[in-house]
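The instructor's notes for this session suggest beginning with a concrete chain rather than abstract definitions. Hand out the sequence below and ask the class to guess, before any prediction is shown, which regions might be ordered.
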Amino acid sequence: MPGVVLAPDGRPRCPWALAGLPTDRRYLDYHDEEWGRPLHGDIPLFERLCLEAFQSGLSWFTVLRKRPAFRAAFAGFDPAVVAAYGDEDVARLLADPGIIRNGAKVRAVISNARALRDLQERGRTLDELVWSHAPATARSRPDDTMAVPATTPESAALSRELRGVGFRFVGPTTAYALMQACGLVDDHLAGCVIGADVTARRAYPR
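After discussion, reveal the predicted structure:
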């Protein structure tokens, strides 16, 4: 059961962070600088939600390499822009070799932008919705990768609420990956030098 491993700098990291080394640091930089750190704002959270959906069934490394192309293709994940995409935009996206050309997932991004627009028009934010499902009590960081759950009751509840307001490709596993990536939970392994700060994680009450 793999626990932390020593990175080339001699400091312990989660084992997945070393994928791509020594030639590609993108996973290591993502692990050190982004994953597990609290993220707020509707556009940043919308981007992460969309990218987690694209990752489903694939390697996150694939998505990470294509992230600049995704941002260009989807107007920086501005939901107001993406919500207005039509058939011509779908055709353009499905012809773009820089992104993952999955028709169902491309259409889900557009549908989700419209769901977010509708949510905002009702006076709510994606930020509030997502963070309302952060666990009330932080658990101990897992000792090894086998101890990291794929879903939790909180991710199932987040998935239900997202689907209830019109979001797609947001099952409990994708919702939990979003929670990990955006700092609602801290799944850096025990001993990882980049263990995220677990204080003040619940920015909003239930």
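Then share the key points. The two ends are 35 Å apart (CA to CA). Residues 69 and 129 are 28 Å apart (CA to CA).
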